Amino acid sequence: MSKTSIWFKQPAKNWNEALPIGNGRLGAMVFGDPIAENIQLNEDSLWYGGYRDRNNPDARTNLPIIQQYIKAGKLEDAQDLATKALSGIPDTQRHYVPLGNILFQFPHFDITGYSRQLDLEKGYIKIKYKANGTNYSREIFSSFPDHVVVVRIQADRPASISFNARLTRDNGRGVERIVSIGGDSLIMSGNGGGIEGSNFCAILKAISEGGEIKTVGQYLTVKNANAVTLFLTAETSFRQKNPEGVCKETIKKARKKSYDELKTNHIMDYSQLFSRVRLQLGSNINEKVKLLPTNERLARLQKGYEDQGLIELYFQFGRYLLISSSRPGSLPANLQGIWNDQMRPPWDSKYTININIQMNYWPAEVSNLSECHLPLFELIERMKVNGRKTAKEMYGCRGFVAHHNTDIWGDTAPQDLYLPATYWPMGAAWLCLHLWEHYQYTQDREFLRKSYDTLKEAAIFFIDFLSETEEGEFVTNPSVSPENTYILPNGNRGILCMGPSMDNQILYELFNCCIKASQLLEMDKEFQNTLHQYKRHIPKPQIGKYGQIQEWLEDYEEAEPGHRHISHLFAIHPGSQITNQKSPELMVAAKRTLERRLASGGGHTGWSRAWIINLWARLGEGDLAYENIVKLLQKSTLPNLLDDHPPFQIDGNFGGAAGIVEMLLQSHEGIHFLPALPKEWANGKVEGLRARGGFEVSFEWKQSKIIKATIYSKAGQPCKIKKAEIIRIFDQTKNEVFIKNINAEYIEFKTKQNESYDLRFEESL
């Protein structure tokens, strides 16, 4: 098997062992059973119900009362009134639902030689086995260029492929009709459910080489074929006025192409994204271990054995999942990417925006998948329209606001009746920082120009909303520190508060990027000045009595010292307010904060452990970051390498992949090679990572020292690098480049657009 394959010697026993495919919009989980195959289907825009105006009409009049209660320390009164006056009506947003299943029955017995493989290099699943003395194979992929899921079934003996197949959906829930057309196709159509729920249509079509195809009732039957190609496509009324008509046209176009052409189209499209990054960790990977099935490798690592190759595979699997669940034109990856088999999935499988969906996109820029970031920006624009109404009607403010959840419709009213999370007004602010991140990596000035108004509107909300304390600081009120609870000196517990640390840190980043954007675009000088004034009055991170970063304005005790959220360290990652260069004393306090969290049981969910990896990397603690990568695989990873919250949530996969990059390369203060290298990765190399400033970076290291590096400048910006052992830099014509010493730590050199620069180190001379 390829080193970039996830494979098994047996079919999936359950969904958590199935293998995912996707083209951003159409997803499937493939079980691989030789006799009773199940391909579970999703279409990213199939959600229950339509948009509702859930803004609470009593919020605005009661907001000043709630704020005054909090200022006066009357927390029970504040929390009781907030539950009534600030909750959305109804209190829940919409949820994601499955499309259905393709169920197959094959007349096979005496199964031997079975293997099931997901090839990450080519983006398809291959299943092989021997049955009845015949060798069979299946190949399954979801094509972005041709908009279909393709299933190819082959055998090494003629006329030996026979099966029944049908489309189904949760015992018919939401299905209005299943009909056959043309004797070789099935149509399943219905409604996602609820008032104004999306209508959907799915079409399954079979083409055989030899043999016979016919439809009987709701079954598609194939007899005695030499080979069979099946196409599955689906659409909903979220995008299409006539989903069935579009599905028929898609199938019509796909069937005109041979299987080889469809497969080639898919591999070429997919691999031009996936192949951008290569990673090798360590130089002594056991060849026998590399040949083991993935579940056996994972079990071996869970017993304490090292497997750097499995960590490489986990990283590339994260990139595969992002390509497969977030492509231009699709919706952004939700809590489960696009892979969900439940009609009411955990946490509704929507967009939880107090960490989880942001984490989904942490690997987008750094691992050279910038295009996969675009669906998130489209969602932000939908949210902006609704968020303006929420800002005006609930808070009496300009700009736009969102809370800790949103859905396909960009709903911005508070979600749930859960005090530790619901009444948190920072969701849109955090999401908008992704617009700035995209600009920093791409240096796309036109993108920044188009995004500026969105950044500005997110900031304007807080210009209107922030309250002034007696000390003259500007803070959010009410808010929470997601999703924690504090203990007052009298022993009472509190949740609602003013100015929790995370809010202040997000505001610092938001105001900062708005100021920088307006300076780059040479516009909005007056607004710059306003933001400067407000930024000066935002509370700075404080060190508490345990030497930790305070989570709240006051140095309260935490009800859960090992809480899964690590919100008050936002300023370290994904923010950059706290760094060794700017505030070394706060970095020490951040380390203490993490130590206390972990000592009290923190990191017990997959995504929380992934955040911890990124934080240790920013703190320069490579061995501790590595320790948590191992624990992420040991404690929070399913047999198919999907993240286990539990249950399955995809954010841990994405956060884990991003954390591996963060250990090897950082660029928030200039390019820094190997900032958190663990001893287990003493040797290695990587190609194609991205750095802020529009740079693509490749490098190699031995005995924990970098020996070779190349920087490709996509935007022609000056390149700032942490000195380390760099002594000479050459352009692609082998001419030495002039280096400017910025300070004791950093150097800088000018670059030209689309040119490469070779860095020479002491060890390489």
Would you summarize the structure shown here?
By secondary structure, the chain is of the alpha+beta class. The protein is built from 19 helices and 34 strands. Strands 1-6-7-8-9-16-13-12-11 form a nine-stranded antiparallel sheet. A seven-stranded antiparallel sheet has the order 2-3-4-5-10-15-14.
What does this entry look like structurally?
This protein is 32% helix and 24% strand. With 765 residues, it is an alpha+beta fold. It has three domains: 5-47 and 100-274, Beta-galactosidase, Chain A, domain 5 (Distorted Sandwich); 311-673, Glycosyltransferase; 693-764, Sandwich (Immunoglobulin-like). The strands form eight sheets. The protein has a nine-stranded antiparallel β-sheet with strand order 1-6-7-8-9-16-13-12-11. It has a seven-stranded antiparallel β-sheet with strand order 2-3-4-5-10-15-14. It has a six-stranded antiparallel β-sheet with strand order 17-27-28-29-34-31. The longest helix is centred in the middle third of the chain and has 22 residues, at 374-395.
